[in-house]
Amino acid sequence: MMRRTGRFHALFLSLVLSAAAGRPAAAEEIVVFAAASLTNAVTEIEERFEAESGHDLIVSLAGSSVLARQILQGAPADVFISANAEWMDEVEAAGLVEPGTRVDLVRNSLVLVAHGEAPEVEIGRSLNLAGMLGDGRLAMALVDAVPAGIYGKAALETLGLWNGVAEKVAQSDNVRTALRLVATGEAPYGIVYATDAVAEAGVTIVGTFPEASHPPIVYPAAALTTDGSTGKAPFLAFLAGPEARAAFERQGFVVVGE
Questions:
Q1: Under CATH, what is the fold of the domain 26-107+217-255?
Q2: What is the pTM of this model?
Q3: Which residues are known binding-site members for molybdate?
Q4: If I label 66, which of 19, 113, 120, 177 is the partner at 20 to 30 A Cα–Cα?
Q5: Binding residues
Q6: Range 110-213 classified under CATH 3.30.420.40
Q7: Where does molybdate bind (predicted)?
């Protein structure tokens, strides 16, 4: 009887060790705060990372300004992916970025979209954007807080178009909300990222803003100085790897360094 019990314990231990061999030593939850414009790419990356690592990503998607303020107020995030450098700078200046972990991931471009089908236009100083809008609104993310809105306002100011449309701007708390306003026809035109426009069948890209009209649109990522998950480093490594890079490119982003 004692020998049977011993053999049973040995068999049970063998099964446990075999089952554990295919999983990380300690699967954890990793809280990721990511810019709303990354929604499609991050959703794909989340599925692939969880399948390969066994860790569980808890992803919060919103405007970079909202996420940065939450982090500054003590939100327990492990990784922050911002849609512009300035909001990451603020988080880093507060001592909340782990030294040596910040990296620029991808770049984006800024486009003018229209509801439904619409002809292309040349975006420059001669564009009669106010006339195109008529009595309608220009959908944009918050122009003083959300990166897409900040870039959009900067581009319009550079091209001398801002004063003519400022009173017609309908501001939203993130770029995806601005995109939906155009897709549903609540606004005839909007300014969004190219990657957002490609993901929405209800809009047409009618023009791309010149790169020189606004600051470079770069998305930095970094681990945060929380006492949270030890899975932060593996996730950042995955973001820089071939599977994540391919996911970004499928959504229209340009991977930094390529």
A1: D-Maltodextrin-Binding Protein; domain 2 (3.40.190)
A2: 0.78
A3: 37, 64, 148, 175, 193
A4: 113
A5: 37, 64, 148, 175, 193
A6: no
A7: 37, 64, 148, 175, 193
